[in-house]
Specification:
The protein is mainly β. It starts with 8 loop residues before the first strand and ends with a strand.
Length: 326
């Protein structure tokens, strides 16, 4: 059997009512005939939406097919034991040209109770943001179910929601249960559990091109929501170059930021997991024992578990998200 190698995947593009042009103009991806593009799924094992390999001898194979064939060698022993033939991480780039719906995702327990697979915990890395761009994450005060429903009914929900101004480099961890929404002018990378379940709470009374409002999930969302208020919603991390800086460490995934301005070596001998590199700035060559792959902003690369030694050679100042499962 041929050796596994770092793999790129052909993105899947999503037309969204709130999407824009930045996936093409900033990330240099061609989304074809779509008028606007809200999301590019660059690594996905979501059923019916699996990405396919775009380089090497496995080109054209779907991600979950590879997991089924290569098992531990691709994803790691513990990961395969837990997730079987479904790849557990979904990586997207999102262009919010307008307000996204205010929404929440279920956790694993609620999703499984409802027969919809996994819950959805995610994180955002802000690649670029227009001046005064903002997003919603969590509540700004302690809220009861009744207070929440009163504000929702009277279209005053935003009064009790926490609003954050954002700049490039900001990170927000969004656990399942946390109410959230993006505002206009934000381009980001999203790392999340493999799930496509979203409960839409409020959509600004928008209509689509046929004059229909999008479906809301008021009742489903109610049981999913975490009404607690937290001290901080932004994930702080130190600005250190040329090493992995941890920003999220959760059972679902660990994500580090690597800010490169010189070559570094990575040794994954102690890690029993795949690694995903998501390039959020610049470009670099990724060298491994049997070859080299170029990675640029807007692309992601799946490093199989059996590939343990990597060199990162930036062609200019570059930033990567490094994601794996501990």
């Amino acid at each position: 059997m041929n050796k596994l190698y770092p793999m790129k995947f052909a993105p899947l593009f999503r037309d969204k009512i709130w999407g824009g042009q930045k996936i093409k103009s900033v990330l240099d991806m061609d989304f074809g005939t779509l008028a606007n593009c809200g999301e590019a799924w660059v690594l996905s094992g979501v059923g019916g939406n699996e990405t396919v390999v775009a380089n090497g001898f496995l080109e054209g194979n779907e991600l979950n097919e590879l997991v089924e064939v290569y098992m531990d060698d691709l994803v790691g022993g513990k990961v395969y034991e837990k997730y079987q033939n479904e790849f557990p991480i979904l990586v997207k780039f999102i262009d919010a040209n307008d307000y996204l719906s205010i929404q929440v995702h279920p956790d694993d327990f609620l999703a499984q109770k409802r027969g919809i697979g996994n819950g959805k915990t995610e994180m955002w890395y802000i690649i670029s943001a227009d001046q005064d761009s903002e997003l919603i994450t969590g509540f700004n005060q302690k809220v009861t179910q009744k207070t929440y429903l009163d504000h929702l009914e009277n279209k005053k929900l935003k009064d009790i929601l926490n609003v954050e101004k954002v700049v490039a480099g900001d990170v927000f961890f969004i656990p399942a249960g946390r109410v959230h929404a993006l505002g206009p002018g934000i381009l980001l990378a999203e790392i999340q559990q493999t799930s496509d379940t979203t409960y839409r709470i409020y959509d600004y009374d928008r209509v689509d091109d046929k004059g229909n409002q999008r479906q809301l999930h008021t009742d489903e969302a109610l049981e999913a929501l975490d009404f607690k208020v937290y001290d901080t919603y932004r994930s702080a991390y130190p600005a250190i170059k040329n090493k992995s800086v941890e920003v999220v460490n959760q059972p679902f995934f660990t994500t580090n930021i690597i800010h490169l301005n010189k070559p570094i070596e990575k040794n994954y001998e102690e890690l029993d997991s795949f690694v995903i590199y998501t390039c959020v700035n610049g470009s670099l060559d990724v060298k491994y024992p049997d070859g080299i792959v170029n990675l640029r902003m807007g692309e992601c690369l799946l490093i199989p578990n059996e590939v343990k030694l990597i060199e990162l050679h930036p062609s200019n100042e570059s930033k990567l998200l490094e994601t794996y499962i501990l």
